[in-house]
Amino acid sequence: MGRHIPAPLGYNTGLTRLFQTIVTKKLQKSLVTRVTKLLAISIKGGRAV
Predict the structure, then answer these.
(1) Out of the domains of life, which is the source (predicted)?
(2) pTM summary value
């Protein structure tokens, strides 16, 4: 049991890293779109930031 843990743990960490990178990329994209939308709205609304 104690010797069998390392391999699955390494596999899990790899999966979590992949998942984290995907999630962060998606979050960054959504944040960028939100910011651009907000900027467009503020520019349209008489540049009142």
Answers:
(1) Bacteria
(2) 0.50
